[in-house]
Amino acid sequence: MNIFQTTEKTNHLPEKYKTMSVEELEGRVKEIKEKLGKRLYIPGHHYQKDEVIQFADATGDSLKLAQLSADNRDAEFIVFCGVHFMAETADILTTDNQTVFLPDMRAGCSMADMADIHQTERAWEKLYELFDDTILPLTYVNSTAAIKAFVGEHGGATVTSSNASKMVKWAFKQKERILFLPDQHLGRNTAYQLGVPVDEMAIWNPQENQLEYDGPVEKIKVILWKGHCSVHENFTTANIESVRKKYPDMRIIVHPECSREVVNLSDLAGSTNYIINQIELSHPDTSWAIGTETNLVNRLIKQHPDKHIISLNPYMCVCLTMNRIDLPHLVWCLESIESGERTNVIKVEETISFHANLALNRMLAQS
Questions:
Q1: Would you state the torsion angle of the CA atoms of residues 184, 159, 277, 62, taken in this order, to the nearest 10 degrees?
Q2: Roughly what angle, to the nearest 10 degrees, separates helices 84-93 and 350-365?
Q3: Beta carbons of 156 and 85 less than 8 angstroms apart
Q4: Which of 354, 351, 349, 356 is nearest to 5 (CA)?
Q5: How many Å apart are CA 128 and CA 123, to the nearest integer?
């Protein structure tokens, strides 16, 4: 299934942008932003590089940025500084008069890619044989448009890391069981906090196309897709033990995409916005170890010099796919808009967009 369409020029950055100085690149962004005015809107995800985020008209998580893009009806050109599933969501929510661009089409999400539509359709067929009409699919917004559409078509909804608890409660009012895609950790942490025992959770292995569970299947309440965030899974209990030993008074706050063991040993866990708000609202001289993406942690360190902030994992790397968006790609994208070439356009097929909207709207109806 072809999820999005692009122009012919997509992944190959022209040589001229590789040789431009930072001053030249920044100057071109400013010029084009001034020239296009309200016709251009640049949303930037929290995990983007500072060199890109400095030009963002809004910063936030993926759903918030997609909603802001849709609300900004003056903007004809949405240059989404994030990853492909985020740009897809923006295209789903925006009007036909708005065009969404992704500066580098290689900017993907390893978690979203762990659940493709073909695997999901095969899984659903087997799970339906096991559980009949007692199962409802939920998908994290960090998923492809095709997965959102599948969930929407089968009566389910999307969830965010902020509203996952609310949406899992909603799902259990609809059906006896849920299939949670594509992040097993967010699904497990959410269900566990709502009182579902771990022994009532199974894992669906898409590579083997089989259920991983020891015990009678009728006991299963939650089926977790075997996917994860490559960044957040690298925070470990050993990291927590190290921080506790070195900084006994330091508070540890992590994202719920971390493993259940890490979340359980931390002081606080919540979405990216939750983490940002907790740091902003905390008293001066407090100390924090943060378990989330490095660009954001470093930005919080700069923004809060009155607090002692470190990464929970001092050897953590940035999200490599998120970091593909850089100044040269941003300028290339903006100049393509200026010249009318329209490079790296994200366009979700109409049928996929329709069913994905169902999943998104069921979630938004619970807000």
A1: 100
A2: 80
A3: no
A4: 349
A5: 8
Packed helices 327-339 and 22-36: angle between N→C axes, nearest 10 degrees: 40
Average per-residue pLDDT in the chain? 93
Question: What's the rounded Cα separation, in Å, for the pair 357 and 218?
Answer: 32
Q: What is the pLDDT of residues 198-220, one digit of tens each?
A: 999 999 999 999 999 999 999 99
DSSP letter assigned to residue 326: -
Give pLDDT, residue 151.
98
**Rounded-to-integer distance, Cα 179 and Cα 148, Å:** 13
- Which residues, at least 6 apart from 80, have a Cβ–Cβ distance to it below 8 Å? 43, 65, 69, 86, 87, 90, 100, 101, 102, 346
For the chain, give the longest Cα–Cα distance. 64
Whether pTM exceeds 0.85: yes
Q: SS3 for 323?
A: helix
For the cut 80, the answer to whether the pLDDT of residue 141 exceeds it is yes
For the record, the structure tokens of 47 come out as: 């995990």
Contact 198, 121 (CB under 8 A): no
Domains and CATH numbers, the chain: 15-108+321-348 (3.40.50.10800), 112-229 (3.40.50.10800), 232-311 (3.40.50.10800)
- Residues in Cβ contact with 364 at an 8 Å cutoff, skipping those fewer than 6 apart: none
